[in-house]
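F.,

This is the one I mentioned.
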């Protein structure tokens, strides 16, 4: 059974249904436009009421569309919300007053009852009405925007906390520490030079996570360097069984941004969920172009496969939606698992 939930009319529709006819009726009465015309009530409704209804609707629709199109356009330039509102309000007022003057002048001239007094009084009343409606719309918009921003901030903080916790758990996992220390101890005895580099890379990993845990974005160059440092540890541990290849097209990685620890999550997932050995190594490819950074690996599921809840990927997708309003692309084709992360430029 499919249930359909009926939605009521939107607040904008209700406001238009009440205020547009209300303005068309009330303003001409207030300014004496109806009494000025020596016509019957029926003719006043046809000659004045309906044109005023059309005038009210045109002014409303044009101003609303201008408000939606121009909102924050100037704000993005000078970061002054008050100046942004004043500029738009002045534009609304200029359009409304000019258009109503021309419209009403034609109407009064057509009815052979043109008088400047009624023209200016009615146009000024329309101007006051537009100012009031503009302020009401702005208050409602800012209230809704504040609520939306608070909700997005809460979702983003949760997603960031989950990502940081996951990254720290992966690195502070007792097995990881035990294996790292065991590997380091062995290297110190056998190959001190490699042990030195191993220790430096291990320190770099923790330093990167701690320094960037509160950031929303990092340079793509920094994230790629972090992945290389971390993969060095995997390379020491698994030797020839794991390979990483990074290809960068004609892209300046210092001008591209990406959420921190996002690439490392994908590399670790590839190693975690696939079978590999020295004879059949796993090859992980990272390709960077102008729009995406792509992580690709051949799928060779482990013999004792445990279904993955894909919490890390889900969390990464949420972070992208909240931060950039963009979707990551996940694809499984021709035996390869492919994830594309959109790049941001600045």
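My design for it:
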């Amino acid at each position: 059974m499919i249930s359909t939930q009926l939605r009521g009319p939107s607040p904008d529709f209700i406001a238009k249904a009440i205020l547009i006819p209300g303005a068309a009726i009330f303003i001409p009465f207030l300014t004496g436009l109806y009494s000025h015309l020596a016509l019957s009530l029926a003719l006043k409704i046809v000659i004045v009421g309906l044109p005023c209804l059309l005038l009210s609707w045109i002014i409303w629709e044009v101003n609303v569309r201008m408000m939606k199109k121009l909102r924050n356009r100037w704000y993005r330039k000078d970061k002054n919300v008050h100046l942004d509102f004043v500029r738009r309000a002045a534009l609304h007022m200029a359009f409304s007053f000019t258009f109503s003057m021309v419209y009403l002048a034609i109407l009064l001239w057509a009815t052979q009852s043109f008088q400047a007094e009624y023209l200016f009084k009615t146009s000024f009343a329309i101007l006051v009405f537009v100012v009031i409606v503009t302020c009401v719309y702005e208050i409602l918009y800012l209230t809704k925007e504040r609520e939306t921003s608070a909700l997005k901030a809460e979702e983003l903080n949760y997603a960031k906390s989950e990502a940081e916790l996951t990254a720290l758990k992966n690195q502070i996992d007792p097995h990881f520490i035990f294996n790292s220390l065991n590997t380091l101890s062995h290297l110190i005895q056998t190959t001190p030079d490699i042990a030195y580099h191993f220790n430096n890379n291990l320190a770099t990993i923790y330093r990167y996570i701690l320094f960037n845990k509160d950031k929303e974005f990092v340079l793509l160059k920094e994230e790629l360097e972090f992945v290389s440092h971390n993969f060095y540890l995997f390379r020491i541990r698994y030797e020839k069984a794991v390979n990483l290849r990074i290809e960068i097209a004609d892209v300046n990685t210092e001008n591209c941004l990406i959420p921190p620890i996002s690439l490392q999550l994908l590399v670790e997932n590839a190693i975690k969920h696939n079978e590999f050995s020295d004879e059949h190594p796993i090859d992980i490819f990272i390709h960077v172009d102008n729009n995406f950074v792509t992580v690709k690996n051949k799928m060779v599921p482990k013999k004792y496969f445990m279904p993955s809840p894909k919490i890390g990927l889900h969390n990464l997708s949420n972070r992208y939606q909240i931060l950039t309003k963009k979707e990551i692309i996940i694809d499984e084709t021709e035996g390869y698992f492919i994830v594309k992360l959109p790049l941001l430029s600045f």
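Confidence is low (pLDDT under 50) at residues 1-6.

Talk soon.
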